[in-house]
Amino acid sequence: MVVRTCVGCRQRAEATSLVRVVAEQGTQQWVAVPDPRRSLPGRGAHLHPEARCLDLAVRRKALGRALRVEGPLDLGRLTAWIAGQAGSTGSSTSQNSTNQHR
Ligand SMILES: [Zn+2]
Predict the structure, then answer these.
(1) Residue 48 Cα, ligand 1 centroid: separation in angstroms?
(2) I want to staple 23 with a disulfide (CB 3.0 to 4.6 A). Which of 67, 72, 87, 94 is the partner?
(3) How far does residue 82's CA lie from ligand 1's centre (Å)?
């Protein structure tokens, strides 16, 4: 299994339980973009999909450092995505909904 370190809480976890984050060059600043399918090119950082870990990463400026970007990082998309994940509170609630296309 692949283990990655969360840039927020610094705990090691299975890569599948973390969300990959990449930086995209925006018009004025870098934009942190969630990459749950791990399909985007470039350097990625790994983070628990939790507001708590995002908050920790932001406070330490760990995301920008992990992604090797300078200057401010727009966290709007990442924050919104993580907020959308918040429906599953508590420990791993694996829902077998009909979300699968194949
Ligand atoms: Zn974490």
Answers:
(1) 4
(2) 67
(3) 12
Ligand 1 center from residue 60 Cα (angstroms): 13
Round to whole Å and give the CA distance between 37 and 56. 23
Q: How far, in Å, from the CA of 57 to the mean position of ligand 1? A: 9
- 72-85 pLDDT per residue, tens: 899 999 999 999 98
Q: What is the pTM of this model?
A: 0.81
* Long-range pairs, 34-37, Cβ under 8 A, ≥24: 34/77, 34/78, 34/81, 34/82, 36/81
Pairing of strands 44-47, 12-14: unpaired
Q: What is the CATH code of the structural domain delimited by 3-85?
A: 3.30.1230.10
| C-alpha 96 to ligand 1 mean position (Å) | 24
- Domain boundaries, given as residue ranges, for the chain: 3-85
What is the distance in A from the centroid of ligand 1 to the CA of 29?
25
